[in-house]
Amino acid sequence: MFASFRHVASVLGVRSKASTIALVRTFASLPSTSLRPQSAIYVSTSTNPYFNLTLEDWLFRHYPAHAPLLLLYRDSPCVVIGRNQNPWKEVNLRVAREKKVPWIRRRSGGGTVFHDLGNTNYSIHVPRTSFDRAKTANIVVRALRALGVEGFANERNDICVGGKKIGPSHVSGAAYKIVSGRTYHHGTMLISTRLDTLGDLLRVDKPTMYTRGVESVRSPVCNLVESNPRITHEAFVEAVITSFREEYDVADEPCVVEETPEYVGDGYFKSGMAELPGWDWAYGQTPEFEYVLEKRFGWGDVTCTIRSKHGIILSSTSILSAATTSSTNVQATLDELGRRLEGKRYGFVQDAEVLSELEYRSGEVAQSEAGELWRWLRAEMRA
Asked: From 9, 54, 86, 160, which residue has the greatest number of CB atoms within 10 Å?
């Protein structure tokens, strides 16, 4: 079975051209924590993506910088986009709403991935001075071979089997995060994931949306069970732990983490789990983009160009052509609608914010045009 998986195709060192608002974390600004890492190997039993992504960040910030660390976990269904990506470009938001699948902006760069209980996530943390993307990828390759699967890392260090991509071995912009002297390389392993759901959620057709952020590209994927039907999450976890121990000469027993009050009540976890779904992080970190839309109405053809940065509409310009009614009145109404959209949150504008006074001030002819245009734009911005 095949589907499409979106991942970043850039090489090591690629950065987004977009500037971002100041939600940059420094050690001085990190939330306080009373917890301390206890092992070099962590396995989370939680399937809450907000908890697991915060756990990863907490381990990255607080485990000794000179020592390697491994984290393994699964999430309930969700879409996870890269730090510098555009959710309106990467996620089919209509399908996500229908399926009640959340999307989350992670704290590392790179491309968009789908998580569910058929997908196992691994995160390998090492000192920056000893980081070697081929070495960390080969930890996973050896684990697959121990399970009877002839996997290999391609030239981008994606993990492959039989020539078909299993999942992104995030080793480029999508692969790692660097803070001071610490680096992590994290990836997903598609074991028995719902590839149909993956395809539905990541299939976005917006060729006229131009973003300054990192764009994902599509690659064919398959599940590990297609190569070995007996592979399970538990077997993969054990195989990766064994390979990690051999690579770094680690003897620690795994620390099994549950989503207990000890963790969720800690200041660091409270802050991190609240930040991820918040508008400022989820939408407000979106790099600048431009969306050009065209539609033929009964009263004329409209080309609308919307510019947005950090989730805020900078401008909305509509050009009327082939008008069948008084073009002067209609164009004036479209211009007014554009002015009313400026400064609003893209995708979150309410009808009363743009139509109430506009319709009051507009002539009878233009009222229906304004309403029809707005209903179209509203649907496009929510898609």
From this structure: 86
Do 329 and 342 contact (CB within 8 A), yes or no? no
Amino acid type, 65: A
Per the listing, tokens 């996870």 go with: 80
41-89 pLDDT, tens digit per residue, is 999 999 999 999 999 999 999 999 999 999 999 999 999 999 999 999 9
The residue whose two tokens read 């991190």 is: 272
Cα separation of 354 and 328, whole Å? Answer: 20
Whether 122 and 71 have beta carbons less than 8 Å apart is answered as yes
From CA 84, how far away is CA 88, in angstroms rounded?
A: 12
Low-confidence ranges of the chain (pLDDT < 70): 1-29, 163-176, 325-327, 356-368
Which two structure tokens, joined as six digits, stand for 281?
Answer: 């992080």
List all residues 6 or more positions away from 286 whose beta carbon is below 8 Å from its beta carbon: 85, 86, 87, 88, 213, 308, 309, 310, 311, 346
Q: Is the pTM of this model over 0.90?
A: no
Could you identify the residue written with the tokens 């209609």?
330
CA distances from 242 to 16, 19, 43, 245, 253 (A): 36, 41, 13, 5, 11
